[in-house]
Structures are given as structure tokens and as C-alpha cells.
Amino acid sequence: MAEKKKRVVVVGGGIAGSLLCKTFHKHHHVDFTLIDSKEYFEITWANLRSMVEPSFAKRTLINHHEYLPGASIITSDAIEIDEQHQVSTTSDRQIAFDYLVIATGHMGNHHVTISDRLRQFEADYEKIQSSNTILIVGGGPTGVELAGEIVVDFPAKKVKLVHRGSRLLEFISETAGKKVLDWLTARNVEVILGQSVDLDSSSDGVYSTSSGETITADCHFKCTSEPIGSSWIKETILKDCLDDHGRLMVDEHLRVKGFANIFAIGDVTDVPELKQGYLAQKHALVVANNLKLLIEGGDEGKMVKYSPATSAMAIVSLGRREALAYIRCVTMIGRIPGLIKSKDLFVGKTRKQLGLKA
């Protein structure tokens, strides 16, 4: 009699969830199902390049079936986890599990199909191309990288960047923020710090700031952080496992506290570290090892422990050739860090991790 396979359900096909699924693809002891709100995996750290070069997106949007051929994939939103070990979806499906992994990250775009997402990049490109003055709201890595992409590809455009913090890139050093500020202002980007923008009250290209000033622009892009993708969990058996910030509380093995067969990975967890893509991938690999151990009947005491990143590390691209690197408290800006990231934005490397051509 054939051994019954363990049912693994992964909710969320982003950076962490996709890599986890890839590690289990064709595992002979596992019957896994991916539940995702969209039909594709998006290499999110490359999507700003796609806004100035829409054709670039064709390598960054990957249908789940492309790297998981033959897998069970449900394109729907998860809405419930019950005591019968089932996940329910908005498409009225109930999927039973022996092990569950939640990888819903942050709320992202709402485009279900690749074609819809490509059309959005085309629309963003047309908006940039047809505007003389562009407002960017948010001075974190997303806002800084978008400003860099625009001023390199469209040097005649006037870019205005507004950030409510006292400096850019607040998640890393003051020196790094100052170097990026100097880089942007040298390219005629107007940077306004210590203010926010009321986007809802804009009228005819006039925006009001928190200090009562007005900014005129032909279009705007909001580059502030999106909410954590955990609102649906508040209606499930895991509702008491969410902290005050809406993140799932996990133990050192990345299991949701109080549940031996439910794990969480990526931005949706309360792991005390910066929420970055390469760290989410590390979560995925730790949980993959732990699930394989449990599924194959190994000693639970030998489960891998995840060690949170203790120091910030980042490479922020500045257009196609330059970047800012912050590694082990050392800051470098220019062509050398640009060689690491800015040309391809790690797209080839990420595709290779999924077993695809770079």
C-alpha cells in the first residue's frame, strides 16, 4: 500500500512563498497546494524599472505554472483557517492540510493576471512620459529608487520627492541618507523632508502638504509602505496569534506560536528584523528544511532555528548604472555598487532560483 502523502498548503506566492513551493515541487512525500490572489509571481524589487521600461516586466512576472509545472495552484484569496485544518477561499474552495505555511507579506497590487499587470506598467510609463513634473511621496527605498529611475531615463523631467521623515532611507545610516540626498539633488530632484502630502485633496495638479504649502505636479506616485497582508487572519483560528502590528507571532523555528503544524514566513511575521526580500527567502529555506524533517519523520529537536538579521544591509539602485550600498555599517555610492544590482536588479538570479532561464 502506497504511503499517504502529507498535504502542505502555502498561502501567498510572493518572494518567500514561491521559493518555498519550488523546494517542494515534485517532493515524493508531499502533496502541496499554492493559494495566491494572482496567477503569477512578481519580482517586486524590479518593478520600478518596469515603470520606465515596460518591456523589462516580461522577465519579472512569472506565471506560477511556469516554475511549478503540474502543481496544484488556486488563484483566489484565502479567507478562513478552521479547526478542521482547512483553508477556505473566496472561490468557495476548502483545502485540507497537514501543514500550513502563511506567506502573505504586504498588500500589493490587485492585478490577478499578468496581462493586467503589464498594462499597469504601460500606464505608469505613459504617465511619466507625458508629465513634465512628477511628485513622489515617500523617501524610503521605493521612493528613492523610483526617483533614480526617472531622472536617469528622463533627465528633462522635474521630480519632486516629499518624505515625512527627517532624512531619506531612515532604515539605514544617516550617512547613507545624506549621500542619496546629494545624488538626487545633483540631478535636480527637489527633496522636501519633514512633510507629508494629502493625496486625497489634490485638485488640478495642486497638492497640499502638512505644513500648509502647495506643490504643483502633473502626476504623482505613492511610494509609502503597504499594509501587512494579515487582515484576513483576524477571522481565523489564528486571530490571537497576531501582535499589535498585525504580524503573526512565530517561534525560533518560524512556527506560529501555539500551532505545531502552521508556519509563517516573510513580512507577515513578527521576526525582529527589517522586512527585506532576501531575508524572506532565508525564512523560506529554513521552513523548507523543517517541513522536510517533520514530513519524513525526523527528530523535532533537530529542527533548524532562524537567527534574525542583527544588522541592516541594503543596496538601493539609482538608475541603470549606479547604486548605494550599505553593508556592515559601510556606505558606498556610485558605479561599483551599481555593478552588483542596478543593471539587472537580481532578476536573472531570482529566475535561476526558480529553475528558469536567467
UniProtKB/TrEMBL annotation:
* Catalytic activity, EC: 1.6.5.9
Gene Ontology molecular-function annotations = electron-transferring-flavoprotein dehydrogenase activity; flavin adenine dinucleotide binding; NADH dehydrogenase (quinone) (non-electrogenic) activity
Enzyme class of the recorded protein, top EC level = oxidoreductase
Protein name in UniProt: NADH:ubiquinone reductase (Non-electrogenic)
GO cellular component, alphabetical, reads: cytoplasm
Native species: Helianthus annuus
Q: Which family does it belong to?
A: Belongs to the FAD-dependent oxidoreductase family.
For this protein, the record's Pfam families field holds: Pyr_redox_2 (PF07992)
Q: Which domain of life is it from?
A: Eukaryota
Domain FAD/NAD(P)-binding span(s) in chain numbering = 7-274
Sorted alphabetically, the keyword list is: FAD, Flavoprotein, Oxidoreductase
Organism lineage: Eukaryota, Viridiplantae, Streptophyta, Embryophyta, Tracheophyta
Q: What does this protein do?
A: Putative FAD-dependent oxidoreductase.
